[in-house]
Amino acid sequence: MFGYAGRILNVNLSTGKVRTEPLKEEIAKKYIGGIGLGIRLLLDNSKAGVDPFSPENPLILTTGPTSGTMWPTGGNGHAFVSKSPESFGVGEAKSHGSFGTELKRAGYDAVIFEGASKKPVYVWIDDEYVQLMDASHLWGKSPMETDDAIKEELGDQYIQVAAIGLSGEKLVRIACIINNRTRAAGRTGMGAVMGSKNMKAIAVRGTRDITVAKPDEFMEFLKEFHERMKGPATMKYRTLGTPLNVLVHNKLACMPTRNFNNASFERAERVSGEYLNERFVAKIIGCNSCAMRCEHVSVVPEGPYKGVMTRVEYEPLWAMGPYCGIDRLDAIIKGIDLSNYYGIDAISVGVIVAFAMDCYENGILTEKDLDGIDAQFGNQEALIELIHKIGKREGIGDILAEGVKIAGEKIDKGAEKLAQHIKGVEVTGYDLRSLKTAALGFAVSFRGADHNRHGAYSFDVGGKVNRFIVEKGRGKMVKDVEDVYTIIDSLIVCKFSRGTYYKEFEDIARLYRLVTGFDVTAEDMRLSGERINNVARLFNVREGLGRKDDTLPYKVMNLPVPDAGPSKGSYVSRKELDFLLDDYYETRGWTRDGVPTIAKLKELDMNDLNYIVKDKQG
Amino acid sequence: MTKIHERKFVSADPDKCVGCCVCEYACSFEKEKAFNPLKSRIRVVRLNQIINLSVTCRLCEDAPCVAACPRDALTQSEENGTILIDEDKCNGCGWCIEACDYGAIMLHPEKKVVFVCDLCDGEPKCVEWCPEEALDFVTKDVLAQKARITAVKKLFQEALKTVS
Question: Which of A98, A179, A230 to mutate to test binding with chain B, by most B CBs within 10 Å of its CB?
Answer without folding.
Answer: A98
